Amino acid sequence: MTTRAPIVFIGGLGGSGTRAVAGAVAALGYYPGGCLNVSNDNLVFTELFKRPDWLRAGPSPDEIRARLRLFGAVMTGGVRLAHLLRAPRLWRYRRDQGPGLAGAPGSIGWMTKEPNCHIFLEAILDTWADAAFVYVSRHPLDMAFSDNKGQLGNWSWLFDLDPAAWPSPEAAQLEYWIRTQKRLDALRERYPGRVYPLRFDDFAGRPVAELTRLVETLRLPVPAERLEPACAGVIRPDGMGRWRERDLSAFSTEQLAFCREAGWEV
């Protein structure tokens, strides 16, 4: 185990392909945590941070960073008594989490995949100077027609977005994508070299090449021979390109123009 490897967080809108990307990064030698669901979401992170009511209450930046440091301690050393005093609900994860990274001597470092973690992107990068964030995105119109609209319900208020004010759920979902994308663009300028945008459409089509580029850009200490095997489970999802068969009239001219300007075919 080495502590020189960057900490890697993987997030994005729900249904954007974070599961496949996380599986590949974990296969490179990263420890993903001991408490994962079938989508490879880190359930400890979910427990601590997927809490819209907590965020609505306005925790201070220091409070958010303190919770992130608690999460980091659990990832590297497991759930301890001191952690339970601060967050008793972590008790149910104690056994599965085990000793954390300390119990995975073959790992090169630790990672976290939870789509919602992009909400805390700034705090994550401010908390750990050695952290990098992989932001996974799919074609915005595919995302608009996705049934996975949980983030729209949970976090739209953070982006001054009222879903009910839009002509359809699809239009509201696309607007959520647009506003999160604008925020991402600003954060990439603020944290140069630490926010890596990964288009899942490209990753699914040429996974080894895209994973290689990610590894080289973020300077992950990964042997070259691990790259191809790490991508063995990557498949092209059936829903990719579904927007081509759908009516786009629900979207505004401005929304579609933004998608084109962002480099997506429409």
UniProtKB/TrEMBL annotation:
InterPro entries (alphabetical): P-loop_NTPase
Pfam families: Sulfotransfer_3
Recorded superkingdom: Bacteria
Protein's UniProt name: Sulfotransferase family protein
Organism: Thalassobaculum fulvum
